[in-house]
UniProtKB/TrEMBL annotation:
Organism: Algoriphagus winogradskyi
Listed name of the protein: NADH-quinone oxidoreductase subunit J
Transmembrane segments: 6-28, 40-58, 78-101
UniProt keyword annotations, A-Z: Membrane, Transmembrane, Transmembrane helix
Length: 109
């Protein structure tokens, strides 16, 4: 086993631990105030609804070169990837628009 492999596995473990801690610690902290869990649930449901809208409008077309051996992409996988991409695009546009509107609001005040 090479040093790079050991460091990669170590980084995978640290990423997994960080993800678990990033999810569990706010949940533990929010048990003091259950109303804060409602905001989190609304956000998660909103993102899930946005994903299903994006998934339903994405295409399941697969080019012949992506059906071959290295990719083995199916129409369902293509539609899933398309839905994720559209969701990412929408969230990025919303984030950029909110940044611009916030800065304009601060400049006006």
């Amino acid at each position: 086993m090479d040093t790079y492999d050991i460091l990669l596995y170590g980084s995978y473990i640290l990423i997994a631990v960080g993800a678990v801690v990033a999810v569990l610690m706010p949940l533990i902290k929010s048990l003091d105030n259950p109303k804060s869990l409602l905001k989190t649930a609304v956000g998660i449901v909103g993102i899930v609804v946005l994903f299903f809208i994006a998934y339903s409008i994405s295409s399941n077309e697969v080019l012949p070169k992506f059906e071959a051996s290295p990719f083995n992409l199916t129409p369902a996988g293509s539609q899933l990837v398309g839905g994720m991409l559209i969701t990412t695009y929408i969230l990025a546009i919303v984030a950029l628009a909110s940044i611009v509107l916030t800065e304009l609001n601060k400049a006006i005040k």
